[in-house]
Amino acid sequence: MSQTTYVPFEQALKVYEPVFGLETHVELGTKSKMWCGCSTDFGADANTQVCPVCLGLPGSMPVVNRVAVESTIRIGLALNCSIATWCRFARKNYFYPDMPKDYQISQYDEPLCFDGYLDVTVETPEGPQVVRVEIERVHMEEDTGKLTHAGGATGRIHGADYSLVDYNRAGIPLIEIVTKPVSGTGALAPAVARAYVSELRDVMRALGVSDVRMEEGSLRCDVNLSLNRPGEQWGTRSETKNVNSLRSVERAVRSEIERQASVLDLGDRVIQETRHFHEDTGRSTSGRSKEQAEDYRYFPEPDLVPVAPSDAWVEQLRSTMPEMPSVKRARLQAEWNINEFELASLVNAGALDLVEASIAAGVDSVAARKWWTGELLRVANDTGVELADLQVSPGQIREIEELIALGALNDKLARQVFEGIIHGEGDVASVIAARGLAVVSDDTALLAAIDQALSAQPDVADKIRSGKVQAAGAIVGAVMKSTKGQADAAKVRILLLERLGVSE
Amino acid sequence: MTEDLTRQSAAVLAAAIAAKEVSAQEVATAHLERIAAVDGVVHAFLHISSDSAMAQAKRVDEKIAAGTEVGPLAGVPLALKDVLAMHGEPTTAGSRILQGWKPPYDSTVVARLRAADIVILGKTNMDEFAMGSSTEHSAYGPTHNPWDLTRIPGGSGGGSAAALAAFEAPLAIGTDTGGSIRQPAAVTGTVGVKPTYGAVSRYGQIALASSLDQPGPCARSVLDTALLHAAIAGHDPMDSTSLNAAVPDVVAAARRADIRGMRIGVVKELSGDGYQAGVSQRYHEALSILEDLGATIIEVSCPHFEYALGAYYLILPSEASSNLARFDGMRYGLRTGDDGANSVEQVMSLTREQGFGPEVKRRIMLGTYALSSGYYEAYYGQAQKVRTLITSDFNAAFANVDVLVSPTAPTTAFKLGEKLDDPLAMYLNDVATIPVNLAGICAMSLPVGLAPEDQLPVGLQIMAPAMADERLYLAGGALEAALVDRWGHLLIEEVPSL
Ligand SMILES: [Zn+2]
């Protein structure tokens, strides 16, 4: 099927209504793996964080990581779920070289958390709109190893010359969050899907249960989607895998709507199948169809005892829940006295927590927002990193703000200080010293620069003397230029007017 | 100590070693020599760990010389079923697919044996992945019963039982999923105990059916079995199904051996037809001895036992099909067909085709089918319900009696090859032992004489409630003492010399 013949999105929405669901896998940030004591640190040499248990060596047995269960319960509570009083793990049986045991320990019909919801906000032309996404279940499972295929054209195991497997990731605690089908969102479907995953990520961060770094694969999504004509039954759904960024979530929903509309427009049937999303093209390709689908032969995991969290434990966890992101946003919006669009830009920039932390560190609220959504966001975007990863601390912003207040720095110099910090040139003081960024506040030096500027532009000097104070800008500008921005412009102006005996 | 060291009990050897009458190294050497002399015809061992055994014996001698405190079985040799992982020593579970694999870790049982200063002589033969009742399903050839080398030593733990009966080791470890400790004990005239599920850690036991498997002690006397039981039992944080409870004092029970006032239940459903005449005869004689010792014999009914075999052959293959999935040639053991042209699935498939024997394939197929979508409820689900009913039968019975008894196996040791082509006949060997595993309770088999018609050992099974393992030793110890009084020695002394 040609990828260029899709029905345009707006046209598809005129005919069909989308129903979608999301299955999100989140790697928990526990210190040790799900069933053994191995480290979960990212980036270690291949197969160095393994033991008989996570390698599935004959005879080895799993033991549940209590912190992982606790994290899952906390996620369930954050998503307004009921918590099972008794549930079991199950084995999902299938053969694949990244699975040390050739079965994955997961949960099947007895999830630890079930029946919850997450409210998400999407921007519409009429303003922000809240959509409730219902949660079917939250369950625990283990991650697989990571395969690397060498040679071959497809980058997949078939056709590869050989494949390497790294089991460092095998057995890392994974939770799967499954939504109920989301219907009635129409053209907002892609935005709702994105907002849901974004909100979920914020919830995980607020709970501190995962670093949810999509680029490291610690949050991965599968998108289920079907189309139907208004008033008709829901259509056949596809499952798009490998949707691993917020942008991809939005694009995957959008392109699948377009693709299925094209199929339906031709009078064909949508095949129930697994599809693979490609970040580069923004399109998906067909994987397994349902006829080829594996029978996972689930059965209760006999090597593990049931998980039966006591009421007391669940209540203790409930009582220590942090403020949820949506509540926090409402509170900060009020505290900072900003409107919905300002709030949205802070949220979209990923700056909310950073601004809050900066204010807590003593930075003025306006200045904190100015830096994080201005200069720092620009640098982050330019270098393609998350704002939070810029390595600028709230304390450093406070220091810089204090220096500005003292007149020792101005905005232009402050930007250079930030640049130095981001480039790893040291703390605020060292960057200022090394780059020679102090404001020139020595009156003698400034007066010399003013005199030089006046003699260079005698006509301007005459204008000012004659009372045209607004002409002072040209001289101030010349002084700023000659001092390479290291002067305090306000002070230059005052000195200039005094020099010429003019008052404002 | 001048007598043949290999004819001694573990208790006697341990005392002599502790008293420095004999060294652990002398004891180990005597057993290694015995193995060298007789294992050619018995084939109880798949691997002899001479070096590590002698090194361990030396450490024990050094500890004793230094006055360091040692365990009650310090320096006593032991034969380890090849299904338990032992660091650096071949561990094959009787399968070709694990040929050459040396675990990089110790099973908990092995760790506890080491901690108890016990000397592990080597790994014993078994039916492949413990699937079988004759040890004929070993990929490395059958073990022969020392009572009659043309006969089977039972299974799956035939190697461990034969090693005891051939005086190659005074102690052995077995694992029992449906009778793999008890049935070999019965047909070799030795003692074997399947402890309560969870009493002995399964960590490091290559799993057959996780919800049924249980490692346990084997020896030639009830007291030796108790001493070994005490050495290996107890909570293990590495096995989440491990019981977190105090280990019953099985050694004291074996020594006390007093059953006056004990109520002994005879399971009606396990006492009827289908037993060899000599098995029935010795069983009923044992019942009268128990009565003479002051016990009351009460008949009890366990109506659901007739479904036990059917349920067992759904649950076991289901769990086994999953447990054995990991043997795919990717990480360890055999790999076949990796010629650069075959796909990964083909390599997995060829490896399993060549690495597994017919009985293993049969059970994997059964289990895969039983767990399939659409069949799960009818097979696995129903079997679990039967399991619950069998547990209820036991609970009802134990409300009225302290222990239950039955013959361990329907016949004495049959001929090698006799049932190899008839899986159903082979499965029926375990009809009396299987309910115990399904319910997770504990049981012992001990010898009660030779069947008159073939002069082969007959075993009696004693069953006790979960976590009441000491009752097995109380009753078994009393019966054994009465029989020794009658015979003047343990039955095993009558085994023909090899
Ligand atoms: Zn590990």
What does this structure look like?
The complex is a heterodimer of chains A (504) and B (498). Chain A has helices spanning 9-15, 66-78, 189-207, 246-265, 311-319, 325-336, 340-349, 352-360, 365-373, 375-383, 394-405, 411-422, 428-435, 443-456, 458-465, 472-482, 489-500, and strands at 17-27, 82-83, 90-93, 103-106, 113-124, 127-142, 146-150, 162-166, 173-179, 219-228, 238-243, 273-278, 283-289, 299-300. Chain A has 504 residues and is of the alpha+beta class. In chain A, strand 12 (273-278) and strand 13 (283-289) form a beta hairpin. In chain A, helix 8 runs antiparallel to helix 9 (365-373). Chain A is elongated and about 90 Å long. By secondary structure, chain B is of the alpha/beta class. Chain B has a single domain (5-303, 389-494), classed as Alpha-Beta Complex (Amidase signature (AS) enzymes), CATH 3.90.1300. Chain B is 39% helix and 12% strand. Chain B has helices spanning 10-18, 24-42, 50-65, 108-115, 158-165, 182-188, 222-232, 250-256, 277-292, 308-323, 344-355, 358-370, 377-398, 423-427, 434-439, 470-487; strands at 45-48, 77-81, 119-124, 171-175, 191-194, 215-219, 263-267, 296-300, 403-407, 442-450, 457-464. Chain B has an eleven-stranded mixed beta sheet with strand order 1-3-2-4-6-5-10-11-9-7-8, sandwiched between helices. In chain B, helix 8 packs parallel to helix 16 and helix 10 crosses helix 12. The mean pLDDT of chain B is 97. Classes of the chains: A alpha+beta (504), B alpha/beta (498). The interface between A and B is large, with 31 and 45 residues. The structure holds zinc ion.
